[in-house]
Amino acid sequence: MRNQGFNWHDPILWAQGLGVSVGVFAASMILGSLIGIFIALCRVYKVPVVAPLLLVISEFLKNSPVLVQLFLVFFGVPVLLQVNITPAEAAIFTLTGNTAAFIAVIAISAMDALDRGQLEAARSFGHSERSILRKIIAPQALVVAMPALIGLAVNQLQVTSLISAIGVIDLTKVGQILNQRTWQPFIVWAIIGVTYFVLSRVLAMAGGRIENRLRRHMDWAGL
After folding, report:
1. Helix axes 138-159, 87-112, angle to 10 degrees
2. What is the value of pTM for the model shown?
3. In terms of residue numbers, what domain contains 20?
């Protein structure tokens, strides 16, 4: 194959791959967070049947390779359920489940770290469990969980690099395309690596700012 070199369309291709990576990451983090919180609440409040089932599923998702999960969803689910699923849909579905499993662990740990005394005091004053969850547990647990959430977000951003294995034209897939065409692996993968690095740093810095604001708000509220 002849070395064709870089051309003016390559930055557009890079931007498209970047958009796909960020889009899959954002969708899976948002959906995964919502599902993860639901799993955590079911387990904390020991919902019969549901809690043990979610625990088994979460343990599988936490302790099996994400690449295997991608293959299972993309290749296995269509055969099992006789449905069509696109690479992007499989990627979002898989990373959402994986994210949810870790969000659940973080949420449970954060809730367990709270002072039980203030929860009992709130109950003694007649607050409902829903009110306690919304006004006391959720705000404080979020602050406690922020460092772990930031770390998870950065990790999941980098995990998106695996979705190219099922055909998603993400940032890593763009790198493969450019590398095959230009025969410039050092330049291509340096650019892809720096892009992930910059995204990770921006994400970590944004998360740190949010954490600081939450802590200041909690201090002001006296919680």
Report:
1. 140
2. 0.90
3. 10-221
